[in-house]
Protein 1
Amino acid sequence: MASIKVHLEKCTGCTLCVKACAFGAIHMSDRKAVIDMAKCTLCGSCVAACKFSAIEIEKAGGPKKDLSAYKDVWVFCEQKKGVIQSISFELLGEGRKLADKLGVKLCAVLLGHGMEDAAEALGERGADKVYLVDHPALKSYQDDPYTAVMVKLVEEFKPEVILCGASTIGRSLISRVAIKTNAGLTADCTGLDIDAKERLLLQTRPAFGGNIMATIIAPNHRPQMATVRHKVMQPAPVQPGRAAEIISKAYPEETFASRTRLLDIVEELTSTVNISEADIIVAGGRGMGSKENFALLEELAKVLGGAVGASRSAVDADWIPYSHQVGQTGKTVVPKLYIACGISGQIQHLIGMQSSKTIVAINKDPDAQIFKVATYGIVGDVNEIVPALTKEFKRVLNK
Amino acid sequence: MDYLLTEQQTMIRDLARKIAVEKIKPVAAQYDESEEFAWPIMKTLAESDLFGIYIPEAYGGLGGGIMDMCLVTEELSRACGGIALGYAGTALGTLPILLHGSEEQKKKYLPDIASGKRLAAFCLTEAEAGSDAANMKTTARKEGDKYILNGTKQWITNAGEAEIYTVIALTDKSRGVRGASAFIVEKGTKGMEFGKKEKKMGIRASATREVIFTDCEVPAANLISKEGMGFIVALKTLDTSRPGVAAQAVGIAQGALDCALDYSRTRVQFGAPISSFQAIQHMLADMGTQVEAARALAYAVARLVDSGAKSVSKESAMAKLFASDVAMKVAVDAVQIMGGYGYMRDYPVEKFMRDAKITQIYEGTNQIQRNVIASNMIKETLKK
Amino acid sequence: MNIIVCIKQVPNTTDVRIDPVTNTLIRDGVESVINPFDAYAIEEAVRIKERCGGKVTAITMGPPQAENALKEAIGLGCDEGVLVSDRKFAGSDTWATSYTLACAIEKLETYDVILTGKQASDGDTAQVGPGISTHLDIPQVTYVKKIVEINDKAAKVERMTEEGYDVVETPLPCLFTVVKEINTPRMPSLKGMMRAKSAKITKWTAADLDADPAALGLDGSPTRVVKIFTPEARKGGEMISGSAGEVSKELAELLKGEVV
């Protein structure tokens, strides 16, 4: 069983570990760190924080496995109705860098039906190889056949790294594949890098509610799997004429069996753009005052070609449906421009939008938390400023 | 202040607070504006078993008392005095059955009230019988195994929404107050109608209507206690329920104070939060002290009622009088601290101020409470 | 019908404040609550029980104090609680966590439906639910926003997607992870809370489970944290003041590059 211990001779009593512990499990006694085992979760934060290597976690973890058979960086390319989703291009962009650092090939994995042309096009997005599995059962995503095919591919071709979108499909699929192949999986990575010497994927993600970043590795397991949210990475540029080697795989029919049955795919048409996709989001909170005032945001969003977002309190007041909610219990968004109107900026909201490139905050309370993350802040009445902005942008954009 | 609540009371208070904060606070302004009855909240209170806390376990309740009812009323009122009234008004309508009803009546009506399936209302006031309740005109004429009710009750809380009504009517006009009797009338009884919903200054999420009886036939089995006991039933009911009004007032006062305190800490003028100014500090200190004193008196009287004390008229009048005057004063001061913002409907304090006013008026105006208190005091000296 | 709901105790983020100096979370006095997403799973479990009859068992893996989360779940309508707690589980990543929970579920006699929240608010991985179904080798439907039909043998559900929803039919047993849209959780009831107070929580340690010790806790976790750091705090920027017209003009000028 794994255990943690403090090497007292190395501990200087600097308290860095105390600050790093998210569980309040470490305190200082006689200027030495003491770990409360009842609270410690062996998360490793203190080990990582200690500058003197005074804390060590011992892991039973058996002999180091020979992992040399694993090669290449794979990107699971998600398709819906035969169209490759843009998240896939973002992963190919990031995957290219990782593959180059490892000195291996970048491979796209494409599951679907009638996807030959799309597979060819992945070469133009930087893929060296495309593993294509074509079958009617793969036309639309289903957990069982997708998992079975992915597991077969992984077992046969042994990739070193697999990247997957943190979408509803990606998260459902890759979690299953990771269990089946006994692989490490890290969700929602915001940064990926390579330790070339150890051939490790360094996966950085927000931890403990978003204000601490953790870098995670899977030292003794392959493949190393990570999911990445949409719009976090830059899409791979199109290189016209660049071709990939297409490797088509066929499997016995039972591989494609599904216990669940997809009866229907319903697309709900919303008047506004999907907020996860939008480059510009105009969001409102309780400070908008009423449902009627919320309509002012729609006008501004329309002029800017953006989507309307909302804080939880605005959704709770029934001013706008839940699908527009930004924040911890809603969606995480990373637009180029986020205009927060009448949003006070509670931490749960900030978690969902603080990675936006430019943030504008309009609030009548000069002490509102939102101003702490805003690129530009305006103290004033949203119901005056938003219409004025709409008018001004109309003029500037000649609309 | 720690009022040494029992474990169950602490649980009740915390649950009521959770509902107030999570369910009522976000919609209080909206219901105030629309003047709708907050049925979704009543449903939540029902699912949480809060309607049954003061009803004996034998009738599906939790076996607590008026103190428990006060704790809930206070917490709900802290978010919205109007929505809280749907709850407290039901307690008022239930008390005649609880205090004076027969075993059959209790078995028939209390379980549905305890589960929150049906709300209750108490019908006493009439157009010409406000403070002077003895001047009532509604009559109940006995015919065989029925009573025929005629007359109009005015400003009845929960009227139209509630399903169980306890009604005071004259069975013998010649005997004045000694000729009054109490009845249980179910919504839907032929000859029972409701007037239009009143438009009020405050507590606008509560429903207030006339209840009109036109040859309304009520089974004789629905007579509470005996003929001629109506006034005693009414007075005993009000004596028992007044700590509830006090609790509602304390809740409103606390709600207003919470807002003012929060605001004073964040509102910066002359380069400092206004809470650093002594003028504001002294106002806050007075408000806080008054609210605590009102709460202490309300709880003390509620506990006195629960102890089974024989006469609580004076004490319950004192609790209602003091707490409602505090609610009014504290709400006015909260608006004052918040200045122009306080006057705007964007902030909840002006609503607390409008809601507070009714607590000085209903279930006996504060002038009537003073009459009750003084006459009891004088009676006590005579006894010595 | 035997319904299992897997829950997690997490720090209440509405309490979480940020230390302005170190820019780290202040956890002192932060209360522990049921993962908000799991509240929807509990409510849906209770609703399925109300529809089909049966029993709801809440199960959690965590420190001894996670027992409170199970009691709260009973207050919300669950019938029984199982706490899986052992030092040996410390350091579990999603792989080891889902393995442990799957072992605990297998120890329960039978199950028809397993419900979990779509993800936990402290980890946000959304991996444990699918992990459990994979370890148990049962079908799953993730991001369920509505259970349209359900009986002893099968269920028809709606799975939320980025564009709308899929309608999916599945045999039981099946694992569902649920989203906020599926219901509005009820408030706890006093009678439920009182039942919870006296309810006996089943407690299992690693020894009670038919589990491979090497697959538990940190030892059974493929991933490991190697570095923790505080991201550069986003600094408040420029404040613009003036009349509505003036600030709009200035802002439109500043944002020209962003909006075209």
Protein 2
Amino acid sequence: MSNVRQISVFVDNKPNQLAGVMKMIKECKINVRALSLADTSDFGIVRMIVNDTDKAVEKLKAASYAVTVTEVVAISIPDTPGQLSRVLDILGNRNVNLEYLYTFLGKSDRSVSFVIRVDDIENASVALNDGGIIQLTENDIAEM
Amino acid sequence: MEKYWNKEIECASRAKMKKLQDERLVAQVKHVYENVKYYRDLMDKKGVKPEDIKGTEDLHKLPFLSKADLREAYPYGLLAKPLSECVRIHSTSGTTGKRVVAFYTQNDVDMWDECCARAITAAGGTEDDVVQVAYGYGLFTGGMGLHGGSHKVGCLTLPMSSGNTERQIQFMQDLEATILCCTPSYAAYIGETIHDMGLSPDDLKLKAGIFGAEPWTEEMRRSIEKSLGIKAFDIYGLTESSGPGVAFECSEQSGMHINEDNFIPEIIDPDTGEVLPEGEVGELVFTSITKEAFPLLRYRTRDLCVLSRKKCSCGRTLIKMAKPMGRSDDMMIIRGVNVFPSQIETVLIEQGYSPNYLIEVDRVNNTDTLDISVEMNPDKFSDKVKDVQKEERALAGAMKDMLGINPKVHLVSPKSIARSEGKAVRVIDRRKLHD
């Protein structure tokens, strides 16, 4: 299966926290392909897909960040009405629970890419495959 | 084989020790009465004359001294020798109010060095050891105290003072330090830094650590012992009575032997001042029976602990004090419940978190709030917000079980809480209760 690794970083809900993480990424000349920030009143979780996961994780850990790597599904669907709904139906029909979802920083005119975090990635991946949804690999992402 | 610095004293029979204490106490009371007006007035007010004190059994007749007295008598009011006979001054950190200054004659310094020499010997130190003193040097007693003890034993002494942690570790490695002396929070930080630098205890020659000057828990001891690959010994003292070395731990690591040839301990009920029998928890009170320049009689330490004369496997007969449960200065009363930072530390280490934390107490709409910031353990971090919140609730639950009240726990980034090179600041109390 073509699962993709997502980096999550724990940050405090204070000024300059995301900036600190991005500085690390910049310093190792890594490109961010998808990014989302979950926030609570206390803390935030920066989630991202980058073009060199190992290097980014190593850099962040060395700087004492709490970092975790999770497997997620990345999909690419046509940029037309009803496409995301179709994806969600495919997952729902197989009883896959969606934790969260965010978009890639895309630049294609005709398609849009999403990161999907689910509770059962095996099941989700098979379901999407059966449904004819294009899943991106880390190689695809590195070449984006 | 247990080694002693002064076997004759450390293993003296009870009868011999009592005789020594009696003689010294009688002479000391006379010395203080004659030379310290402040205390003479207190004795007169209580109707006690030096002749009334014939031995340790009369100790309870003497008036107490408290930190408030020391502040009132600042700076010279409790001085018992002319300044020309004094050779040094030390001072408390002053975190809880006005500073207290203490004076030392050369004999006082020698006595203090002897106490620290006993502590270093009990931790396995001999003239073959290299002692790295990473307590702060200066007005604080930690640095100079262990420094003096280390010299006395004849150890090679590295007077590092605190701070510049990477250089500490470099020296520790290059000069093969075998005994580290510092505050437990700094020891924990050094341990953490060693691992961050990609080193392990195997890269060091350290075998023991002597840590004191702030309360620490058994859990923290085990964590420091593991990270530095050493046996960690507790040491107790206070500037008011000399400094570290008033009591020290032996190989049994179950309480500290009090150098009772110099300091007579009592445990009192903090509310009534009544002396409590051995084994009961109360406030620790010390009477210095050999100090010349700054001899405090019945000084209330505000430390809560227990004394024990149970036979110790190390062979010392010196009375033992349990690790203080907390200085009553450290104790917070939150929503009517007594809370010690050490309890919070215990929970954190049990739950696998770093013992670096910050307690913030405030009062909102007449209700006390307790917020505890805890550094996220990267191994427990999940990408899901609800998992992190669940972890916060689990920690709060464990704290509630320990404290009896519900705190709000905030997970914060690893290493975002300031590390301490000396005494750690763990509590910020914003309640304004006395204005």
